[in-house]
Design brief:
Layout: E1 2-6, H1 11-21, E2 27-31, E3 52-55, H2 62-72, E4 76-79, H3 86-91, H4 93-116, H5 120-125, E5 127-133, H6 164-183, E6 187-192, E7 194-196, H7 205-214, E8 219-222, E9 228-233, H8 234-247, E10 253-256, E11 261-263, H9 264-278, E12 293-296, H10 311-317, H11 325-338, H12 340-347
Parallel strand pairs: 1-2, 1-4, 2-3, 4-5, 5-6, 6-10, 7-9, 8-12
Antiparallel strand pairs: 9-11
Length: 362
């Protein structure tokens, strides 16, 4: 099966590409614009073989998309290309609207044109898989505010996005479903919880905290750090996504979560505890990594809690996360300790990190 992966040099996209390339029955066309967060080094050179093709293309470029479809003739599309940093969407929503809404529209139209040109057998087998976020649902009550069973996001939870980022991801979800209903394009949608793991761009919360702690810098936390997220190890997510594109039912939505609800402050404290064990020789002037934690003004419209009900994908596609939060976090910290060349090259680029680590989606 040949799969066109958009955003395949990004964090989640590269995990999908690595997973697919490790399975000999798949080939991959990695289409990525290579913006600041796209890094081709996230696909190790030893995976570059006759089943891997890279195209540096903007999903807003209709002519280039047409060329890619005609040249590579994919059997499916996995659409991960997106602007995903909530803080950036607040400061500059225009770029997010262009990529996440206009780009998705342009890709849908290019895909539809290609799909209509296929023979009956390939047309029937074709899939367009749109990868989205749980942030489109808004937020849920905090356990400090309610008694009894806490609600979870299900596939039928009404959309109520809070940030410019989540609003335009919601828009793209609606476009994908409209192209199924109106044009018959065989689409599937997945919505995932917060991802973490290897190759995560350093502006995101977990790598930001790891690298700041190693450098003896402050570990800024929004508000009091009580916001709750469900954390999903990125390699578990990649397995789920490939399950969906190969076995999922057209027109369905599947929520993908890690069953790991943690307060943001707990995440930061867990990293500090792991570093105490794994890197006991601290930077000069640091007696304990947790001493570096600082609390800063909360972000506008910051969602209180996200939590995924992933029972549908478990029951229908037999997927479960393999990593607990504890095992996944240990693997993540160890990866950053073992791969300083990767993140040092990222940090030394033209883009300078000057923000709090984004405490949202991977």
């Amino acid at each position: 099966m040949k799969i066109l992966v958009t955003g395949g040099a990004g964090f989640i996209g590269s995990a999908v590409v690595r997973y697919l390339l490790n399975k000999s029955d798949h080939s991959v066309v990695n289409l990525d614009k290579l913006t600041y967060a796209g890094n081709p080094e996230s696909i190790p050179a030893d995976l570059h073989n006759g089943n891997y093709f890279f195209e540096q293309v903007d999903i807003c470029d209709a002519a280039e998309l047409d060329r890619v479809f005609q040249q590579h003739q994919p059997d499916a599309v996995m659409h991960l290309a997106a602007e995903s940093h909530v803080d950036r969407s607040i400061d500059g929503p225009g770029d997010f609207i262009q990529t996440n809404i206009v780009g998705t529209y342009t890709l849908l139209e290019a895909t539809r044109k290609y799909w209509l040109s296929l023979g009956a057998e390939k047309k029937a087998a074709f899939r367009f898989h749109h990868i989205s976020t749980d942030e489109v649902y808004g937020d849920l009550p905090h356990p400090d505010e309610v008694e009894g069973t806490l609600p979870l996001f299900t596939e039928t939870t009404p959309y109520s996005p809070s940030s410019p980022y989540s609003a335009n991801k919601a828009s793209s979800d609606h476009l994908v479903r409209a192209w199924l209903r109106t044009y018959g394009l065989p689409t599937i949608v997945t919505n995932c919880s917060n991802n973490y793991g290897p190759y995560h761009f350093p502006e995101k919360l977990i790598p930001h905290v790891i690298l700041n702690a190693l450098a003896g810098k402050s570990l800024p936390v929004y508000g009091d750090g009580s916001q709750i997220r469900d954390w999903l190890f990125v390699e578990d997510h990649a397995r789920a996504l490939v399950k969906v594109v190969t076995q999922g039912k057209i027109g369905e939505t599947y929520n993908i979560g890690g069953h790991n609800e943690k307060r943001n402050i707990e995440v930061v404290q867990t990293i500090c505890d792991l570093l105490e064990e794994m890197v006991p020789h601290k930077p000069e002037g640091v007696s304990a990594y947790q001493d570096l934690i600082t609390y800063v003004k909360d972000r506008p419209g910051h969602d209180v809690r996200y939590a995924i009900d992933a029972s549908k994908i478990a029951n229908e596609l037999n997927w479960q996360p393999e990593e607990t939060f504890e095992t996944g976090m240990r693997k993540t910290v160890q990866w950053y300790l073992d791969n300083p060349e990767w993140w040092q090259r990222v940090l030394s680029g033209d883009y300078k990190l000057n923000r709090i680590g984004d405490q949202e989606q991977g």
